[in-house]
Write a structure and sequence with these properties.
Number of domains: 2
Bound molecules: S-adenosyl-L-homocysteine
Number of strands: 9
Structural class: alpha/beta
CATH architecture of the largest domain: 3-Layer(aba) Sandwich
Largest sheet: 7 strands, mixed
CATH class of the largest domain: Alpha Beta
Distance between the termini: 51 Å
Strand order of the largest sheet: 4-3-2-5-6-9-7
Helix content: 25-40%
């Protein structure tokens, strides 16, 4: 067996039925032919994913001990077993669109989502387990305290669903936090109807000062009076939905010098 390493966020799922539920939560939405598992560890999810014969399974795992174990457990799948860091790995190795699945290393889950956002056109569906509070935040709606930067950015491109929760006892070793499984399905917009770089900047800047009205939070943009007068700017970052941010971005674009 593989000795769990804390710095890699290794908490191995013990419960087979939960593992099967997670694997079964990938619906095939968008018709992808490839699945990428992030952090297969000792392969508890992998065993169910490897049974899906109409899809090719890829795995990326950073831990050499887990890699060695997986090579003996799934000899038929080693060709697509990559030893590496998902955050820096060049995804273009996978030839077409793919789904992502994983019981994520919780300490880097936000960074994983930022990478998913960069690649969203290639990723029709994602199912993952992460810390419950983070999962709640991602799926929460505007006006909610938990709503944050990644909620807006992910909801701009994906439909998000909170599927089920998993207790610490289901893992070895048990994590200090509760876990939850979410599903993301691409809305198929391909692009937003506005400048996406500016959209991201406005969302980030707004939430960095989430207690202020957007008029104050966005001071650094030096917006002209005609934009400053917008009613949307009376509100705070957490009160705007994706469409509001698109509207705001369009209004700011003519006055923005990157
Ligand atoms: N899927 C397994 C393990 C989950 S723990 C299970 O459910 O039991 C998270 C896994 O992600 C660990 O195996 C860890 O080694 C791996 N991991 C951590 N950081 C990673 C990274 N940057 N890229 C790929 N895998 C990573």
């Amino acid at each position: 067996m593989v000795k769990p390493k804390k710095h890699l966020g290794q908490h191995f799922l013990k419960e087979q039925s939960t593992a099967k539920n997670i694997a079964d939560s990938l619906t095939g939405f968008g018709g992808y032919k490839h699945i990428l598992e992030i952090g297969p560890g000792t392969g508890v999810l992998t065993q169910y994913l490897a049974e899906r014969h109409n899809q090719t399974l890829w795995m990326i795992e950073v831990d050499p001990d887990s890699i060695a174990y997986l090579e003996t457990r799934f000899p038929q799948a080693t060709e697509n077993l990559i030893e590496g860091d998902f955050l820096t790995w060049d995804i273009s190795v996978i030839p077409s669109s793919f789904a992502i699945i994983g019981n994520l290393p919780y300490n880097i889950s936000s960074q994983i989502f930022f990478k998913v956002l960069d690649l969203q056109q290639q990723i029709p569906e994602m199912v993952c387990m992460l810390q419950k509070e983070v999962a709640r935040r991602l799926v929460s709606a505007p006006g909610n305290k938990a709503y944050g930067i990644l909620s807006v950015l992910l909801q701009a491109f994906y439909k998000l669903e909170y599927l089920f929760e998993v207790k610490p006892e289901c893992f070895y070793p048990p994590p200090k936090v509760d876990s939850a499984v979410i599903r993301l399905q691409n809305l198929g917009k391909s692009r937003l109807e506005c400048d996406e770089v500016l959209f991201r900047r406005l969302v980030k800047q707004g939430f960095q000062n989430r207690r202020k009205t957007l008029r104050n939070a966005l001071k650094a943009f030096n917006l002209p009076q005609e934009v400053r007068a917008l009613e949307l700017l009376d509100r705070r970052a957490e009160q705007l939905g994706v469409e509001d941010y698109v509207t705001l971005t369009k209004s700011v674009t003519p006055f923005w010098n990157p």
